[in-house]
Amino acid sequence: MNLYLDTSSLIKLCVSESGSESVLEDVDEATVVCTSPVAYAETRAALARLRREGALTASLLAAAKREFEEQWQAYLTVDLTVSLCRTAGDFAEKYGLRGFDSIHLASFAEVASRGGVHNARFSSFDTQLNRAASKLLRRLQ
Q1: Which of 35, 62, 71, 93 is the most exposed place for a label (fewest CB within 10 A)?
Q2: Distances (CA, A) of 57 to 11, 19, 45, 46, 61
Q3: Strand, coil or helix: what is 98?
Q4: How many CA atoms lie within 13 A of 124 on its CB side?
């Protein structure tokens, strides 16, 4: 299975929180784990926000960043092309998504089209993005 992780799922691999176990199980079952390059900046920003908010100590932030950097090397990142960004713009309009969420959805669409729709799985903890991914999968089938 090709598993696509958006930032809300990636962060759960670095910081133990609700949903972390299910993402870990999905990653263990996956043949390939995919994401978008924008997830790197988003994840680092989310970790920094958790530190600012006091949810992570300085040492926990350092450990989470190390873990993330190690994991990042194993992910297949979908190239951010002009075509993909145009598709993301269409998805933002069609599904009412924010910019980076639409990039995640367009990246997932690329993964699904290349590896097969029935072999693709989308992981997110964003309700609106999950709804859009479900609609997209139904359309692609």
Answers
A1: 93
A2: 16, 21, 15, 14, 6
A3: coil
A4: 22
pTM: 0.95
pLDDT, one tens digit per residue, over 42-77 is 999 999 999 999 999 999 999 999 999 999 999 999
User: According to the model, what pLDDT value does residue 141 have?
Assistant: 85
**Residue that has been written with the tokens 């859009």 in this structure:** 132
Centroid of chain to Cα 77: 10
CA distance 14 to 111: 23
Pairing between strand 32-35 and 120-123? Answer: unpaired
Distance CA 55, CA 119 (A): 36
Terminal Cα distance for the chain, rounded: 16
Contact partners, residue 116, CB within 8 Å, separation at least 6: 2
The residues that bridge with 35 in the sheet, in sequence order, are 77
